[in-house]
Amino acid sequence: MALDHNVQRSLFAADALLPTGWARNVLVQWDGAGRIFAVTADATAPQGTPVAPGPLLPGMPNLHSHAFQRAFAGLTEYRAESEDSFWSWRNLMYRFAARITPESLEAIATWLYVEMLEAGYTSVCEFHYVHHDQDGTPYADDATLSQALLRAAQSAGIGITLLPVLYQTSGFGARPPRADQARFIRSTDNMLSLLERLAPVTQAQGAVLGLAPHSLRAVPPDSLTAAVQGLTALNPQAPIHIHIAEQTQEVDDCIAWSGQRPVQWLLDHAPVDKRWCLVHATHMTPDEYAAGARTGAVAGICPTTEANLGDGIFDMPLWLQHGGRWGVGSDSHACVNAAEELLMLEYTQRLSLRQRNVLATATQPDVATAMTLQAVAGGAQAAGRAVGGIAVGQLADMVALNAQHVALRDLPAHSMLSSHVFGSHRTSAIDSLWVAGVRRVSGGRHALHESAAQAFVAARSATIAPN
Q1: Is-catalytic flag, 84?
Q2: For 372-402, what is each residue's pLDDT tens digit?
Q3: Alpha-carbon gap, residue 248 to 412, rounded angstroms
Q4: Could you give the CA distance from residue 35 to residue 125 in angstroms, rounded to a whole number?
Q5: CA angle, residues 332, 181, 305, in degrees to nearest 5
Q6: Is 420 noted as a catalytic residue in this protein?
Q7: Catalytic residue among 15, 311, 331, 397
Q8: Which run of H or of E encompasses 40?
Q9: Catalytic residue among 280, 333, 414, 420, which?
Q10: How far apart are CA 142 and CA 294, in angstroms?
Q11: Complete domains list, the chain, with CATH
């Protein structure tokens, strides 16, 4: 006998992490568009309703991704200069970016998005700046590489916020772009035309379209103003993401150019509000932390990438003291694991402050629970998508842990989440994952795992092969 249609769009969990905290015997129901219309605690599962194999968690938004960089993760871990830094790493990254093709980008991104889903991410903000052909010539269809990313997201089944990147100069003071940045460069009018071209495509896919002025060093003031105004005319709610204050050299150069630090300059010259995501924002003064948090913008923290690149440590307690919102991203994809980003974030705070359980709150003393709820809320805001947790009106983006995993077995639900984040076990405790109510991961595996992995390996080999 076929299941009742409503039963097929429902899930029962003995324990579920709701925006208000943990609840018992929770029935989640969603409509044909994947939007939750009922969350009932202390419920009894209707006959035939699927039952989660363990605690049910909200899906984690990944608020910062450069998909193509996954293919050279781990390949720059050797000393190339007497003192390696973000800037020497960037030179190696540019060499790799120069060889990307539409086909290789789609294969790399598809595998990456499969990895993200298997690792607990249900949506991604793609900060996309490789726009043109290998010699910098625009493709006949100017949206060729953007559409490769959209197809990859659709194939994997991950929600996506596409953020085409505006990139115009190589440094503060409108320095001309370098030769190895030719694939990134667009005029402001050209960028707005691209957004108009992509708007119906993203809408048809259920994706969100925003804009990413790359950084203050790459977008002159007049262009930043015009681009934000143009985006707002197209969609007043569209998200805006920007790299800001990631490196101390960037801060020094900004002061030399303007007399102000990057975050200080941005807040004085741009209409920063809750639409904005300040990616990294690592090097701020106490006044910048306070002023930045007051805008309602989200701090986009990428702990494993920031550690990999030697960026520095974001002062999360100071940000939270002023009511700041935050989320996590995997950025360069040195690591693709939502739980490990949370772990790295908490551990860097511990190392900096020489304290434990730094990001627990008065209402949520369990660190993993507190961090998960905050990262989901901030990530959803940055993505501009209704993915803010297991609640009415949100998309049914959910992750079920395996309660029989050796690291979780016989623990209470909140301790299962804590073990998942901080237990450092060799195999994933994620059993299942849903995006907008569609099950994309089962038994810890995505249906495309093998085929996407093979295509990724082939694309990587072709891209890193010598000329």
Answers
A1: no
A2: 999 999 999 999 999 999 999 999 999 999 9
A3: 44
A4: 20
A5: 15
A6: no
A7: 331
A8: strand 36-40
A9: 280
A10: 38
A11: 5-58+390-450 (2.30.40.10)
